[in-house]
Each structure stands twice: as structure tokens, then as C-alpha cells.
Amino acid sequence: IRDQITKTLIWAPIGSIYKSVTWDKAGAMKANEPWSGYYEVWPTIWATAHTTQFATPENWQYLDEACGLFDASTYKGSIVTLKDKNSANWSMIICTEDSETLEVNIKKGLANEKVYVWKSDSENQFVELASIIPKKKSFTIQLDPKSIYSLTTTTGQQKGAYEIPESKAFPFPYKEDYENRKVGDLPKYHSDQKGSFEIALKEDGTHCLKQIAPEAGYDWMRIYRRPNIKPHTLIGDVNWRNFTCSADVFIEGGNVELGGRVKGSFLNGYRFMIAKNGSWKLIHNKKTLSKGIIDGFDGSIWHQLKIKFQDKNVEVFVDNKSVTKANHIVSSGYVSFASSYHHNLFDNLEIIAND
Q1: Does the pLDDT of residue 219 top 80, yes or no?
Q2: Can you give the CATH number for the domain in which 261 is found?
Q3: Position 218 in a domain
Q4: 298-324 burial string, b = 16+ CB within 10 Å, else e?
Q5: What residues contact residue 193 under an 8 Å CB cut-off, 6+ apart?
Q6: Is 66 helix (H, G, I), strand (E, B) or coil?
């Protein structure tokens, strides 16, 4: 109202982000279980609908004289009014902080017809109330505190009601060979946290996953400017604790990682990192638990990495040979791939129960 701003962007309209990951509660609604179809409609949807179902960007304009604040010192109660450019229809959107009594006077050029009333509060959203018939181009309405109202001479507003699929855990066990996607597509169910992972062709014509970011971009928030954060992608269930995960890797340059029990966006969890020369580290968060080098490691071919998690015990295998063991802490989290800023490849992800 003060700055006459007429556009709002919601990031993201639908939040499809894994639990525990940064911004997992952003958006107007949540749909982060594509394997089940479950979703949640948050009240933000209906707060938005109080404008979007009562006016359109193309044909409606704000009426400056019919916009204002209940208390200019706090900005906690407001009224905006819009008119259809092609008719006499109008809509008024009201946000209250306290109980209010509002008198509306309808000026020349605006529809003096039945006024439809819709309301939302913390308990119920987008409820149609009794309509109002103006008398002598005027009416009074009592408004409850902490509520949103839309008054309009238009019709057609509605609140959808659908049967939401049941929430289900991420499928377990799980396998992914990346063959069900086109080259250049994003992989199914993966959630990139830095860098970029996409479907690519292998030399034999089959598909794999490739880290394609050649260098770090600009981190627009300081929380991402941590030296241990590198290109990585998550997959699975934040509650996974005891399991075995494996994947094939090809190290084009730098190093790759297979991780498990990883939470959040900052590589917190167990990670096995191996470089093209065969040097490796087992890391938990920022702490190195063990390190070494594999004699005769051939960095020009594919290798299989595997990690077995069982309570406090963590064991790492390279090409089915045990490389290191650790007795550390019990935690839970996702499986992760990570890479230096090279075009490193990943394939044949498998997550299974322990023997």
C-alpha cells in the first residue's frame, strides 16, 4: 500500500524438498513424496487465493482511494480494492489484526450489486459467508481479528477438495540405473544441494549420472560458503539407519564420494571419498575417521563403492574388498553422491537391507 507494489513472487509455489534439507518448508504447499503422491495444502495457498480468485493481473487495477491501513503506525491491518477494467465489478481484500467495523460506500462506476464474502483465519481457510445486499450504495460489515476477507461482486470462487493419497516412506530397498531418463534430464528422486547432476551417456551407450558444474557458482547466502561443501546430491529417507548402499563410479578428475546417514544440505554424515590416484578418506561431518591409499588403483576404469551401516559399525568396500572399518556413532539420514568440480560419473545405485 505504501509503495504501491502490485506483484508478489512465491518461492517456490510447491515445495518438493527432502526433510531436513535447507528450505524444506518453503512454498505455498508441500509435495515432497512423488513416489506416493501425498501432498499438503498449507494455509498460504488460501491466503493467496484471497487475491488470485478475485482479480487477474491482466484486467484488474488497484483503486488508490480505496486502499488503506487500519493503523498506519503498525501496518498490521490493511485494505486493498481492485476494479475490473472491462466492467463495474470490484473486489476488496482485507487483513485484520483486531476486531473492526468497516463501512463501505460504493462510488459511481462500481457495481452496486450483491457482495459475496469469503473469509480465512488460522482455523478455517477460504470459507464463503453470507452475502451482503448494499442499501443506498452502502453497507457495514463486522470483521474478526487476525483474519483475511475478500468482498467481491464477482462469482466463480471455489475451494477445491480432493482425496489426498496416503503418505508413504521412500521405497526400500531401492535401485537406480538411470535408464528411465533422457540424456540431460534430472535423475528421479535425487535432490542436488550444490553443483548439478544430470543424466549422461556412458561409452557403452547406457545411461549414468554426471556432475556437470565446472566450478563453484556465487553463493548468495553465507551459510553455503563453507569450505567442506562441494557438489552433492541426496536420495532416500532421512530416517534410514541400518542399510548398505553401493554405486559404481568413474573418476574423471579430483575425487568422488559415496555417503550415508547424511542430513541437511552441508554434507553432515558419513562419507567415503576416493581420488583418481586411489587415496581415500572416511569422513564423518568434518572429522576424518580413517585414511589411506589403495595400492595399484586404476583411476581410468569404473569402480564400485559400498558402505555398510549397522548401529555404530561402519564398513567401506571398494570393488567388494573391505578398505576400512569404524566404530563411531549411530545416526540416520540419506544416501549421497558428491564430487569435486569435475565431470565425474555415478551409476547403479543400490540401497538394501543388511545381510
Answers
A1: no
A2: 2.60.120.560
A3: yes
A4: eeeebbbbbbbbeeeebbbbbeeeebb
A5: 21, 22, 229, 232, 233, 234, 265, 266
A6: helix
Q: Which of 271, 276, 288 is nearest to 249 (CA)?
A: 276
| Interstrand relation of 191-194 and 303-310 (parallel, antiparallel or unpaired) | unpaired
- Cα–Cα distance list, 233 to 48, 193, 207, 262 (Å): 32, 6, 17, 10
Residue 30 falls within a domain, yes or no? Answer: yes
Residues spanned by the domain of 330: 174-352
- Whether residues 231 and 181 fall in one domain: yes
Does residue 25 fall inside a structural domain?
Answer: yes
CB neighbour list of residue 340: distance below 8 Å, 6 or more residues apart:
230, 231, 253, 254, 255, 256
Mean pLDDT over 151-161 rounds to: 95
First to last CA, the chain: 64
Q: Which of 105, 120, 152 is the last residue of a domain?
A: 152
Q: How confident is the model at residue 355 (pLDDT cuts 50, 70, 90)?
A: confident
Place of cell 535425487: 190
Provide the grid cell at 342: 569435475
Final residue before a domain boundary, out of 152, 186, 212: 152
Domain count, the chain: 2
